[in-house]
Amino acid sequence: MEWREADGVRWLAAELPGATAVFSGRSAGSLKDGHRHLASALGLAPDRIVAGRQVHGAELAFPDGATAPAPAPEADGQVLSRPGLAGLVYTADCLPVALAGPGGAAILHCGWRGLAAGIVERGAGAVEARAAVIGPGIGPCCYEVGDEVLDRFTGLGDGIASGRMLDLTEVARRLLRRGGVEAIEVAGLCTCCEEELFFSHRRDGGPGRQGGLAWLDEGA
């Protein structure tokens, strides 16, 4: 994973088997206000970026048209089976998780509710994922939760929390392993700590959102 920049926009880029993943930050502006600036920097057509109405669940969308569907479906993940479209999820502390395998590529919005509901397992199964990238999200340094959240992940074993500080990335990593994903890359950046780089709902309480994108490379 490496930082790249164009047109004043910086993003993290990662290569997956036959696919590309991108994680934006503040420099692209809040994607809830539009993603044309980011799309231009990435060389993507804005109307070929697909996103859903996120509800912190485990539903996946399977777009297959030439452009983004309207209205956007209620979904917290986008599954791409052919090149031409890029999936987008909005985040502001939750994890963006990109996956790729013989069945395509996927991008998932993974907060604790979605992780507990099985979105990682569903996304991994949908593309027969062999590799994944976990983008920037809130770290265990900043993510204090209650017992009702901790109790949802006790089956993952020790090491996912220190007291009430939950390691959301480690939760996602263990769920990916359970889903058969062998190669996992992690950004290791906390959105709450890195104020100059990322929006954070827990830190700011504002509407700003960065994004995670994934698409299949031409010829994949």
Record the SSE blueprint.
Layout: E1 2-6, E2 9-16, E3 19-24, H1 36-42, E4 49-51, E5 60-61, E6 77-80, E7 86-91, E8 95-101, E9 104-110, H2 112-117, H3 119-127, E10 131-134, H4 147-150, E11 161-162, E12 165-166, H5 168-178, E13 183-186, H6 201-204, E14 210-216
Parallel strand pairs: 4-7, 5-6, 10-13
Antiparallel strand pairs: 1-2, 2-3, 3-14, 6-9, 7-14, 8-9, 8-10, 11-12
Question: Tags for this entry?
Answer:
220 residues, CNF1/YfiH-like putative cysteine hydrolases, 6-stranded mixed β-sheet, 6 helices, 19% helix
> Which runs of at least 5 residues are low in confidence (pLDDT < 50)?
none
Number of domains: 1
The CATH topology name reads CNF1/YfiH-like putative cysteine hydrolases
Largest sheet: 6 strands, mixed
Proportion of strand residues: 25-35%
Element order, helices and strands? EEEHEEEEEEHHEHEEHEHE
Number of strands: 14
Main CATH class: Alpha Beta
Spatial strand sequence of the major β-sheet: 1-2-3-14-7-4
Full CATH superfamily name:
CNF1/YfiH-like putative cysteine hydrolases
Which structural category do the helix and sheet elements fall into?
alpha+beta
Amino-to-carboxy terminus distance: 20 Å
Which range best describes the helical content: under 10%, 10-25%, 25-40%, 40-55%, 55-70% or over 70%?
A: 10-25%
